[in-house]
Amino acid sequence: MLKICTPGGGQGQGEQGASFLSADPRKKQVTVFDPSASGYVTSANRKAGTSAPKMFAFDSVFTPDDSLTELCASSLAEIVQAVVAGADGCLFTYGYSKLGKTYTMLGTDQGPSSLGVMPCAVAWLFRLINEQKDKTGARFSVRVSAVQVTGREEKLRDLLSDIGQGPPSGQGAGDGARTRDKRVPADLRTYSLATVR
User: What cellular-component terms does GO give this entry (predicted)?
Assistant: First the structure.
C-alpha cells in the first residue's frame, strides 16, 4: 500500500511545477518520470539521455485527495482480522518529515471520519474481538507497543511511556518491539489494553 504525501499537498511537483509522479489508484500503480525531462518522455528526449518512466505496482494507492476513512478501510481489514486469528500485526509509516505521517497514523479528534490508522485499528480490533467472543466464547488478551524512529540517528522512542506503568519490555508477559538489529529502548513498555472474556 502506498499513500502519497507531498509538501503543500501537490502530487509530485518539482521546483518548476513539472509533474514527475503520476498516481493511478484504479490501476494501483505509480509512475515516476525523470524530473530533468520537460514533461513526459518522448522519443526525442529519450535519445538525449532521459530515462524512461518507471512504473510501480502496489496493493493500494492513495493520493492526498483520499480520506483517512478510505485509507483505513482499505489497509486495516486484513491486518485486524489476522490479529484476531492469533497473528501479530504491524502498522507503520515512512517518509520525510512534515508530510503527514503523524496525521495519517493518529488523525484528529474532530469526529469518527478524522480518526487515523492507529485509533481505527484499536476500535476495529475490539469490535472484532467482541464479535468473536459472542460467537465462540473465546478469550483474548491484547498487548500494544508503539515506537517512533526519529532523526538521522534513527533513535527509538516509546510512544506509550507517558501513558501507563506497564513493565519494561522483557519484564512482563510480552517481549515488546524489536528491530532488525535487536535495538530496543531499555525502558520500552508493552501495555495490556484489556483482557476480554
Answer: cytoskeleton
Do 180 and 129 belong together in one domain? no
101 is in an annotated binding site: yes
What are the pLDDT digits (tens) for 124-164? Answer: 999 999 999 999 998 888 888 888 887 778 888 887 776 65
H-run or E-run covering 20: none
- Is 115 one of the annotated binding-site residues? no
Residues 145 and 186 in one domain: yes
Q: Is 97 annotated as a binding residue?
A: yes
Write down the pTM of the prediction.
0.64
Count up the domains in the chain and report the number.
3
Q: Is 160 annotated as a binding residue?
A: no
Range of the domain at 152: 139-197
